Amino acid sequence: RAALDRAAVLLRIKRDVNRLDNVWGVGGGQRPVKHLVKEMNLLLREYLLSGEVTEAEQCLRELEVPHFHHELVYEAVVMVLEGSGEEPVAMMVTLLKVLWETGLVTLDQMNRGFQRVYEELGDISLDAPLAQGLLEQLVELCFDRGIITRALRDACPAR
């Protein structure tokens, strides 16, 4: 009875999802999508600042959402397109290569992430005029390093 009363109190608290995660040990698949997207964006930003691939890999594992790794691919590509310069492109290619080689990101997830970017490129280009050129550069680098397939490279929208 005491445990049920305690659970009822905790469920009434409308603070943060993390509170229930800490109490009940909720896995990643039961977290809200917005929360997961936010965590992935933070992971990617931290990676761009630190350059620590193993740290980014560990953080992705700790999210416990292997079915949602296509979102990381999507967010990584969009982050590169909305940024500027050569360094973020090279860094994201390195991260995607490691995640691909370790099996954290599967072929299907890689394809889904890139396809979503291809579909939304028009909208992305409104905010980032250089997005098309950066995408072509990123896609070529990913293909050269064996991260994406020829079919996915050829599906990239051309100017």
TrEMBL record:
Gene3D superfamilies per record: 1.25.40.180
Domain MI: 35-158
One GO CC term on file: nucleus
UniProt keyword Cytoplasm present: yes
GO BP, one annotated term: negative regulation of DNA-templated transcription
Presence of keyword Lyase: no
Keyword annotations of the record: Cytoplasm, Nucleus, Repeat
Main subcellular location: cytoplasm
Top-level lineage group: Eukaryota
SMART domains reported in the protein's UniProt record: MA3
InterPro entries named among the record's database cross-references: ARM-type_fold, Initiation_fac_eIF4g_MI, PDCD4
Subcellular localization: Cytoplasm
A Pfam family that the UniProt record links to this protein: MA3
Entry's family note: Belongs to the PDCD4 family.
Stored PANTHER family: PROGRAMMED CELL DEATH 4, PROGRAMMED CELL DEATH PROTEIN 4
Name of the protein in question: PDCD4 protein
Lineage summary: Eukaryota, Metazoa, Chordata, Craniata, Vertebrata
